[in-house]
């Protein structure tokens, strides 16, 4: 259960490298990294390269991030997602709300 955060203040991009699980167990870490008392970045990258599973709370966290980042104006990219995770995001309609690579 981990999140590695890289903040490129020059580009205004916050990158989150998520560990094996993207679920409720990292809710507090996720919140503190990008939703807490930090101003919204210009863009966000969520690297799911190590994630093997996610639950509905992960989808909720993504929606909270989108709202925090400006809603429809938000620039949030989800990268390195496995085929299973991309399929989950597609079924939930998140491929229309986020850029999924």
Please compute the radius of gyration using only Cα atoms. 12 Å
The first-level CATH class name: Alpha Beta
* Overall pLDDT confidence: 93
Number of strands: 7
By CATH, the topology is: Transcription Regulator spoIIAA
Description:
- The structure is a single chain.
- The chain has 101 residues and is an alpha/beta fold.
- The chain has a single domain (3-100), classed as Transcription Regulator spoIIAA (2-Layer Sandwich), CATH 3.30.750.24.
- 30% of the residues lie in helices and 27% in strands.
- The protein has helices at 27-34, 56-68, 83-91; strands at residues 3-8, 13-18, 21-22, 43-47, 53-54, 76-79, 99-100.
- The chain has a 5-stranded mixed β-sheet with strand order 1-2-4-6-7, covered by helices on one side.
- A hairpin with a 4-residue loop joins strand 1 (3-8) and strand 2 (13-18).
- The model has no long low-confidence stretch (mean pLDDT 93).
């Amino acid at each position: 259960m981990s999140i590695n955060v890289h903040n490129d203040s020059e580009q205004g991009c916050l990158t989150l490298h998520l560990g094996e699980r993207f679920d409720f167990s990292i809710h507090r870490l996720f919140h503190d990294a990008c939703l807490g008392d930090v101003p919204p970045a210009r863009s966000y990258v969520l690297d799911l390269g190590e994630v093997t599973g996610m639950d509905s709370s992960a989808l909720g966290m993504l929606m909270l991030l989108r709202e925090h980042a400006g809603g429809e104006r938000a620039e949030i990219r989800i990268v390195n997602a496995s085929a299973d995770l991309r399929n989950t995001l597609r079924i939930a309609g998140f491929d229309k709300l986020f850029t999924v690579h």
